[in-house]
Amino acid sequence: MTASPSRILIVNPFGIGDVLFTTPLVRAVRRAFPASRLCYLCNRRTETILRNNPHLDRLFVYEKDELIARWRASPRQGLREVGRLFQRLRQERFDLVIDLSLGERYGFLLQLFGVPRRIGFNYRNRGRFLSEAIRIDGYHDAHVVDYYRRLLQFMGMRLLDDSLELHPSGEEERWAAEWLRSRGLGSGRLLVGIVPAGGVSWGVSAPFRRWNAEGFAAVGDWLIERHGAQVLLFGEAADGSICRTVARLMQHPTLDVSGQTTLGQFVGLLGRLDLVICNDGGPLHLAVTQGVKTVSVFGPVDPHVYGPYPPGPQHRVVYRPDLTCRPCYHQFRLPPCPYERACLRELDAASVMAACDEVLVG
Questions:
Q1: Which CATH architecture is the domain 170-360 placed in?
Q2: CA distance 103 to 153
Q3: pTM here?
Q4: Cα–Cα distance between 138 and 122 in angstroms, integer?
Q5: How far is CA 247 from CA 185, 230, 252, 257, 344, in A?
Q6: Which end of the chain is more exposed for a tag (fewer CB within 10 A), N or C?
Q7: What are the φ/ψ torsions at residue 150 (nearest 5 degrees)?
Q8: How far apart are CA 351 and CA 348, in angstroms?
Q9: How confident is the model at residue 1, as a pLDDT?
Q10: Cis peptide, bond prior to residue 283, ω within 30 of zero
């Protein structure tokens, strides 16, 4: 690049895991262009995890569901809201955009705004409005972080630090410390979090990525009996029934925290746990950012593409390598399963227990 860009925008409208996968790229761009104004366009949910990112100067929030609701209530109000967002983007006068949306609407809009450089992926010819693009047919031969790494070639940059990054606020840190102290937790006893649901951004497909409640309950009881652990169950308010089922199936008492924390408070608590056990999805990657040991269960999704990053001995992924039908999630689609989700249904608790021992004992 002949001159440093003065105003840069990164676009990623996807879920928590996807946005966390961009944080090494965000850090690399900031290091390469320390004087540039660096902005990020995300959705409402991921705004929380980017709010305290020290490398970003401004966040733009585009929440499709909110705009649809406003449009239905009042088309005039919905149009006005979209117009305000477009005006704020135009006023920034960006000269470089890194578009990770895999769509065409952002590329078209930013070309219309006169942004000279628009870098991203050309997926199914949806990148035709980008000025520089890598043609892909999905994420499948490398981790998503490594796909984002490849875009740096257009800016003459390298990714020197590939760790995921998330900074809870001081208020959230203090809240988590007080929450644990008031319950007599975290004073020498192994503290384990189990997240039996997760993967909110998958919507109606989320249950097809979840291991069964019986398995989580068995692992929770085993951790209490073998390691003297205190087990906490985490989840969104909508995950309450799943967490209650796990608690009911367990022989030992546990603490159900589902629906009782904000996302930021959840992250604050994660950083004080010794181990997190979960399905693949946002909670896994949140735990990774906080330096917590993890054991995750993967079914239809390839952990080499969407697993904990960077991989290491503190993170264990449990899946069925003997099933040739998995991973079946391909080109961002989860096909119908003729085997009744055998990849998760037939995965035994002993495998997860062994992985827990590996990360806890070595």
A1: 3-Layer(aba) Sandwich (3.40)
A2: 21
A3: 0.94
A4: 10
A5: 18, 13, 8, 11, 20
A6: C
A7: -65, -25
A8: 6
A9: 44
A10: no
